[in-house]
Design a protein that fits this description.
One of its GO terms (cellular component) is plasma membrane. It is a multi-pass membrane protein. GO terms for molecular function: proton channel activity. Keywords: Cell membrane, Hydrogen ion transport, Ion channel, Ion transport, Membrane, Transmembrane, Transmembrane helix, Transport. InterPro entries: Otopetrin. With about 575 residues, this protein is mainly α. The chain folds into 2 domains: about 230 residues, no CATH class; about 230 residues, no CATH class. Helices cover about 75% and strands about 0% of the residues. The chain contains 19 helices and 2 strands. Strands 1-2 form a two-stranded antiparallel sheet. The longest helix is centred in the N-terminal third of the chain and has 36 residues. It is globular.
């Protein structure tokens, strides 16, 4: 079975090993290929309908919990999601131990699917989600006298589900399964639906956040010596279940709030990988679909992009640390918000200009478009467009709130400029990346010479090298770099510089909101305009999509860099 998994997709496949799909509606088709194609469409349709019904059922539960907390409680929603998680666990285990080990089960593997950066994201966000569940279990255990036992069982099942799913996606994200097509499609779709419902619950459920927020307000009230009646009614309701004055309890609270966005991010990433696997069920990859040489990332032909990008990363890291120190205090200063917004107002126009220049160069180039069928690339385009809606939507909500209050005030005007520039930057970057993803890869001049020099360097590294030989090797490497850079056309050189600069900018713009910098929620302007609960839902809907957009943009920009 392991030999079947490792079979190269480019190798010719014996047709006797292919399991053509069958479906009772199309059993009278004259051609085997036609019956297989119709059966594949029917399997996708029925599995999609199954997922749609599961999502609607879960959405109805979650909506009922929001609008009628007496009839449907949060515990009822957790029970439903726990049942779905257990079903997904059974299917994943069956796939790992049964389906994937059948003879000729995985004859093909999609080289474009399951890139290392997205599988690494699954592990990173999965690890953070596990820690989040640990903090939730610890917090509920300390307050067991006023908490339901479901609040301990649900995250415990969640830890097992996250571990199993992460292992499954790491090892099998490239599979083009050729057996048990319909059962595999249904299993994948139920798993996608479960992750979507977990994301929807995370976006809309602010119970624990309100509880922690009320306790922080209670501390501020005591510090200011105010009466309890000056606070919202939910403060008095949640003080009955107050975290005792213990350091470990405060750690659980802070850890939960810090890691909360990672859980929503994990659900979105898993949905994207599982969708590609669902599209690849029964897919047979022909020889011309498989690249003969896998593109490799090499830091050659770029000078200014890394310099400017590194400067943006260093300045952004300083702004982020300054913001984190100031924003965590009870009364954050206005100056830190001014610095934060000013950094974005300088960086976003620069990124937009670079993206526009890159798009113009793409239009000037006479490079052929890649029109081959590629589910991974199609999904990348959809995810870039869809994930950008998170930041664009939040920006428009902010624009309405700021214009309706006082747009001439300094902080409001900076926040308004930030929102407008963010919309423009998302649009221009999407156009540049999507256009670049559809360009054919061009082989660099002098590639054969570079390969020979790499082989020579590997041969040298296998034996002891004297100081003189080491100096010669460094000189050869430098000359090779200069040779490659000078042979690049100016268009491709500029494209590589722009792509690398945008990669580093998107990395720092991913790090800042991921690890706790949320001025759009913490400055209080939009929150006071829309109300706490409404703005909580808007931010928790848009923020994870925005973080996912930055992370996904890095992968797309690296692909543009390699193809240039």
């Amino acid at each position: 079975c392991h030999r079947c998994k490792s079979t190269s997709a480019s190798a010719p496949t014996d047709t006797s090993k292919i399991h053509y799909e069958k479906f009772w509606l199309y059993r009278h088709c004259s051609s085997v290929q036609q019956r297989d194609q119709q059966a594949q469409k029917a399997g996708q349709l029925f599995s999609g309908l199954l997922a749609m019904n599961v999502v609607f059922l879960g959405s109805a539960f979650i909506s009922s919990m929001i609008f009628n907390k007496v009839a449907i409680t949060l515990a009822d929603v957790w029970i439903l999601l726990s049942i779905l998680k257990v079903l997904c666990l059974f299917w994943i285990i069956y796939y790992l131990l049964g389906t994937s080990r059948q003879p000729h089960a995985v004859l093909y593997r999609d080289s474009h699917a399951g890139a290392i950066w997205i599988r690494g994201s699954v592990l990173l966000f999965g690890s953070c989600s596990i820690l989040l569940n640990v903090f939730q279990i610890g917090y509920s255990t300390i307050l067991i006298h006023c908490k339901s036992r479901v609040e301990i069982v649900f995250p415990s099942i969640g830890i097992l589900f996250i571990c199993t799913q992460a292992y499954f996606l790491w090892h099998h994200s490239k599979d083009c399964i050729q057996v048990q097509h319909n059962f595999t499609r249904c299993g994948l779709m139920v798993t996608i639906a479960t992750n979507l419902l977990l994301w929807l619950l995370a976006v809309t459920n602010d119970t624990l956040h309100v509880e922690i927020e009320s306790q922080l307000r209670e501390v501020e009230r005591r510090f200011a010596g105010k009466a309890p009646s000056s606070h919202p009614h939910w403060c008095n309701e949640t003080t009955l279940c107050t975290c005792p004055n213990m350091t470990i309890c405060k750690v659980f609270q802070k850890g939960y709030i810090l890691l909360y966005p990672f859980n929503t991010e994990y659900c979105l990433v898993c949905c994207s990988v599982l969708y590609v696997m669902w599209k690849n069920v029964g897919r047979r990859i022909s020889h011309h679909h498989v690249p003969h040489t896998k593109p490799k990332f090499k830091l050659q032909g770029v000078v200014f992009g890394p310099l400017l990008g590194t400067s943006a990363v260093i300045i952004g890291a300083c702004v982020f640390m300054m913001y984190q120190i100031q924003a965590t205090s009870l009364v954050p200063s206005r100056q830190v918000f001014v610095i934060y917004y000013s950094y974005y107002i300088v960086l976003l126009p620069l990124m937009s200009v670079c993206a526009v220049i890159g798009t113009i160069i793409h239009a000037l180039e006479k490079k052929e478009l890649d029109t081959l069928k590629n589910p991974t690339r199609s999904l990348d385009v959809v995810l870039l467009m869809g994930a950008a809606l998170g930041q664009i939507g939040m920006s428009y909500f902010s624009i309405v709130a700021l214009v309706a209050t006082d747009p001439r005030e300094l902080l409001n005007s900076l926040a308004l400029s930030y929102s407008v520039l963010l919309i423009f930057q998302n649009i221009t970057q999407n156009v540049f990346v999507i256009d670049g993803l559809h360009r054919r890869r061009v082989t660099l001049p002098g590639k054969d010479e570079d390969t020979k020099e790499e082989q020579n360097r590997e041969a040298y590294s296998q034996r002891r090298v004297s100081v003189l030989e080491l100096g010669q090797e460094i000189r050869k490497a430098s000359l090779s770099y200069i040779h490659t850079y000078s042979h690049l056309s100016w268009k491709r050189r500029v494209l590589r510089e722009i792509s690398f600069f945008l990669v580093l900018c998107n990395i720092i713009l991913w790090v800042m909101p991921t690890f706790g910098a949320h001025p759009i929620f913490e400055n209080g302007m939009e929150r006071s305009f829309y109300g706490y609960s409404t703005w909580f839902v808007i931010v928790n809907f848009g923020l994870p999509l925005g973080v996912f957009y930055r992370m996904h943009s890095v992968g797309g920009l690296l692909e543009v860099y390699v193809t240039a």
